[in-house]
Amino acid sequence: MGIFWRVLSAERLKMSKSFVWLLVIGSPAVAMLIGALANMEEEGQMITWEVLLSVMSLFHAMFFLPVLSGVFAALICRAEHADGGWKQLLALPVTRTSVYLAKYTMIMALLAAVQLLFFAAVLGVGALRGVDVPIPWTMFLASIFGGWLACMPLAALQLAISQSWSSFGAPLALNVTLTMPNMLIANSSTYGPYDPWLQPMLAMSPFGEDRFGAFNLPLESLITVVLGSLILFLAVGLFSFRRKAV
Amino acid sequence: MLVTEVKKMTQAVIETTNLLKEYRGRAAVEHLNLNIGKGEIYGFLGPNGAGKTTTIRMLLGLIKPTSGSIKIFGQDLKRNKLQILRKVGSLVESPSYYGHLSALDNLEAIRRILNVPKSRIAEVLDIVSLTGEEKRPVKGFSLGMKQRLGIAAALLGSPELLILDEPTNGLDPSGIQEIRSLIKRLPVEEGITVLVSSHLLSEIEQMAGTVGIIRSGRMVYQDTIAHLQQQAAGDLRLAVSEPEEALILANRRGCGGTLQEGRITLPRMSDVRVALLIKELVENGHAIYRVEEHRQSLEEFFLQVVEGGQSV
């Protein structure tokens, strides 16, 4: 356990002072812009938090969260793939499991920062546009935390790919390619819930009236699928990393 | 033989037994028995692709041997990997850096994993003469500075064993000289055992006390550099009237000679034996035209060894 925390602390330092922070700010900033400009007023009705959240989270959850999961995974393996990076790191007195889990934790921490900033952006835009109904904390927390939770399997999958492919671009290209069909797959209640790229969007959208396709799914089932695939992807990645010849 | 016996008495820091690494049935390293004593600078020599890096990766637990055992500090690597690696510093291939971070931060990242006092960073920077440069981002460093930073990183945990894979690769002559004098200082000042690999004998012979030469995954020579110099000291060449018959006669005396370009080539032997052989040849009616000692440079000898022309 001590080794894990030490590696994590080193990983945090490696990521600091880099442009990764721009990526963390990026999606909340775009969501803020969308929220500030979108036309949400319907004939004299006040904007509700639900509407604001679904407008702002659409692009964020459908596109940015899956892409960022892949970008963070690729970034966290990047320097190790250059030259003898894995050799230098793994010849230190560390266990491979602790290195892998520290890197995974780092990805999830960055995604958590993205989600918190996004939350702040929603609250900020709401205040700006004069939403004066009480803040539905439960719904917000379920959406923000649920979106983060739903990134876990995808981040595990992307880390598994990034650690094994020495290329920086290829896992990213694959990731973006598989993020693109999200809008289509969202219509399918059969495949949708099993698509790791779609899960953040399913989890983040407020569970309101107008459900269709894969959105028409109880939260509990989604969480079961998410946790199941998380364990699977994490185990596969860890197994492969532990056997990796470096 | 005396040399080998003396060496066995000092404690072995690295000892491998019948180490084998196969890739798809092809052996990259086989029957490798390394023996490196405490406080030595051991030069691990061989042409590119001979298995040096593969061996080093096995010593650091980066890849698993197909069979055979590795003992470091007398402990089994498989069972005590973390304890062993805690006392080993390494630089394999060119080290990688977080270019946007300063030398200080790059070392700090490793320091956090090793959990050594912060003051150690200043110490290792001083050892590799990078003090004053530590705040600059590493991407602006020259290759030589990066290599020195890599050695600094390897020294951070105050290792008892330092494993350096081709540390001078790609450096200019002054960079090579710097690294070389640095490595030479370590066993004396810090009491560190050093394993340094290279494909150039000239780089190793000025710092190593012992050399191991590897060719196609097999160790073909392992002894002191002094012994290597002796071996290279030269052979005897005889030009005689009837070379074939003379060779038969010489080999009947156990000289182990060969015929090359019409001359008899005999391995190095004592003055007395040379005198006896000549006397016998003359008595048997051979006319002796020339007796020459052929001195080869250490480099020539090394090339012969790695190209498989000579077994030692």
Automatic annotation (TrEMBL), chain A:
Look up keyword Transmembrane helix and say if it applies: yes
Q: What is this protein called?
A: ABC-2 type transport system permease protein
The answer to keyword Membrane applying to this record is yes
Task: Name the residues that span the membrane.
Answer: 20-38, 58-79, 100-125, 137-160, 172-194, 221-241
Record-linked CDD domains? ABC-2_lan_permease-like
User: What are the UniProt keywords, alphabetically?
Assistant: Membrane, Transmembrane, Transmembrane helix
UniProtKB/TrEMBL annotation, chain B:
SUPFAM superfamilies on file:
P-loop containing nucleoside triphosphate hydrolases
Q: Which residues form the ABC transporter domain?
A: 14-241
- Which Gene3D superfamilies does the entry link to? P-loop containing nucleotide triphosphate hydrolases
Which is one Pfam family of this protein?
ABC_tran
Q: Which terms are listed as keywords in the entry? A: ATP-binding, Nucleotide-binding, Transport
Q: Which domain of life is it from?
A: Bacteria
Q: What protein is this chain from?
A: ABC-2 type transport system ATP-binding protein
